[in-house]
Model the fold of this input.
Amino acid sequence: MVARRVRDAEVVGSNPASPTMIYRLFINWYKARVSAKQKNGPFHGAASAIKDSLGVARVHPEILIYPYAALLFISVTFPIVSASVFADWYRRIFSDTYALTPHKTAAILGVVGLSALYTALVTAYFTTAVSAGVLAKLENRPTVPLYGLLRVIKNFFRVTKFAFLSLFFFPIGIYAQRRKLPGGWLGVMGSSLTLHMAQVAPVVLSTHKKVGAAIRDSVDTLGKKWREGLILKVSMYVVIFLIVALPKLIQHGFFKGHAASSVSWLISIELATSSYVTLKVIYSVFTTVLYHQARDHK
Done:
């Protein structure tokens, strides 16, 4: 009698139309669907780009010279610029008075504006160089030492023009893709927000296209990969924020007074520029790999 009940239960459980089997089939289908979405999702794509970038760096370690060179260059030159060009402005900003006078406001705007311009130029040169180098390695093209830097020097004035414009890539990207509006506004906003010099570098170095055409070409090539680019970009800025905030947190917790506050601000400014340039160069490796993947699947 017990054996018969067991056989009956097995028959009921093995019936394709039974509720148990239907539930199991649904669960298996749902898990497979979720797994496929995660595999093809932007987070997986961003992780894949980082993994592939590390693979390129492992095979071609000479690429790593660019982040180190960028860090060394900005660490040496920015204090010199600060001590010469920004010296008077720094005296106004860190004066004994805390009042926000017109002179102090003008000095703050001057330091922020010129610092942004200087870091944008340095970043553009190094990101373009690393983009050219990484892309050549991914395409298995024979290269000479410091190939990317030589390409930047050869196209110096064209790279400089795009370097100045890189401060305004977001509105330029929207304007260049205006024909996609209003239907594709999310893609236009996302791709413009993640637009990066490393992404534009292949077009800048290999063609003579004007700004609008170069931007459209770069954005169209990357396509829907802008989601992965956005994840990488947000992650980069989170790291930069933590690095820049560290001196102020230490000063606030252990050191008091106007002099300590001024020193911590100066250290934060120096760290902001050096970490921004260095991480941008590293980020450009990821962006170049994404660009190469998107171009191969285009």
Residues 258-296 form the longest helix (39 residues). The chain has two domains: 1-40, 42-296.
